[in-house]
Amino acid sequence: MLVEHRVVLLYFVVSKGEADVEVVKATQADLDYILGWLESEYKEDGAGFWCNKRLIISALETDELTVVRQGQDAVGFQVGNHAPEITSIRKDCRGKGYGTALLEAGLVRALDDNVNVLSITCAPASSWSFWQRFGFEAVSPVREWGEVKARRIVERRHDLPEGESADVEIAFYPEEAIYKHECNHPYAVYRPQAVRLPNGKIALDQRVIGIKPDDVRGDLVIRVIVDDEERCFCKAKYDEAEAAGVIRNWLDGTYYLDQIAASAGSSQASVHQSGRQLP
Asked: Which of 10, 54, 166, 274 could anchor a disulfide with 194, C-beta 3.0 to 4.6 Å?
């Protein structure tokens, strides 16, 4: 049996001095309070997210507005259940960990909802340093002005049972790799620890996640090798990949494996697997 390691949220209720800080779904009262300080900040210096008030109001209606409260006051908020579309902390409350509390609450929801990647757009670009501290990687140029597109993989680790180890390599490629029969330029290569299960499946010590770069055309290609046997080398959306254990995540557009399916020789799991022995 695989046991999944999960991040434990410590910020639903956090003690700060005399007041407790909560991260909760917003109420109408929270929204009214937020709009009040957003308008005040905008009138003061023309900055902030007051111009996005329609999006913020809509987020309450769709249950995608989360707030961090200092006492009874909503001093920060996030639009988006997982990756934030907007995150803002009241000016006088910044640098106190409230943004971190909102982020970690989103990470817990991502784990609970089986989300594999959080994609964000940082605007202004000066906010990029905050997100970078929490494992987000830029997928667009980082400039002094403008915005930065970034993402973070939501990692999951598994405890492996005792058993015979397996040598596993999982690689992701651009679509042209299967047409040119080339394996020289993968997007990413993973070599997780792995153990053979009694049912023939291969348990992995981590979730392996494949993501196609946003600026690349075509489909994502995956190659799965177990002990020098090629289990599949095809588009990740094909039945052959699914037969090898690849799962398509419709929530975020990723493909992932927690286990590799049993080979055709050890079960009747699939007639699609190539089962080709590598030279």
From this structure: 166
